[in-house]
Write a structure and sequence with these properties.
CATH architecture: 3-Layer(aba) Sandwich
Distance between the termini: 25 Å
Largest sheet: 4 strands, mixed
Number of domains: 1
Mean pLDDT: 91
Helix content: 40-55%
CATH class: Alpha Beta
Strand content: 15-25%
Number of strands: 4
Order of helices and strands: EHEHEEHHH
Structural class: alpha/beta
Number of helices: 5
CATH superfamily: Metalloproteases ("zincins"), catalytic domain
């Protein structure tokens, strides 16, 4: 049985419908035939994620999401770090709602763990199509309206 947990280091953020989202995330891995053992989703600030980006990836820039697969032998044991500050800024600059953008980034991290890549243009387009499909499925089919 997989375990999905949410951790809130960013005090000004609350995620509603956590139970439903945990089930949906677990389903993503099942449908992609990936054994999810444990997933920690950590919501944090720009400064916190910048420090991780510098320390572990040697990148000196802000980002919205960083995903680490910790390499469990029996499946995926991973952490997804999400900057709430970056997601808010991205939502505003893209003309999207915060609710949509936060879910897109969560799904983006999960898709990386399922083997999706986004460095090449064609890979990025495939990732975006799958993110959009998951957003539609999550919000429209399941009628989930709260964040």
């Amino acid at each position: 049985m997989s375990q999905v947990n949410f951790h809130f280091l960013h005090r000004q953020f609350v995620l509603k419908n956590r139970k439903e989202l945990k089930v949906f995330i677990s389903t993503i891995f099942k449908k992609k035939k990936r054994n999810l053992v444990r997933l920690q989703v950590i919501f944090c600030s720009d400064a916190f994620l910048l420090d991780i980006n510098q320390q572990f990836l040697q990148h000196d820039y802000y980002t919205d999401v960083i995903t680490f697969n910790l390499g469990a032998e029996d499946g995926i044991d991973a952490e997804i770090y999400i900057s709430i500050d970056r997601v808010k800024d991205n939502a505003q600059s893209l003309g999207k709602s915060f609710k949509e953008e936060i879910h897109r980034v969560i799904f983006h991290g999960a898709l990386h763990l399922c083997g999706y890549k986004d460095k090449l243009k064609r890979d990025e387009e495939e990732m975006r199509r799958e993110e959009n499909r998951l957003l539609d499925l999550y919000f429209n089919t399941n009628q989930r309206r709260s964040t």
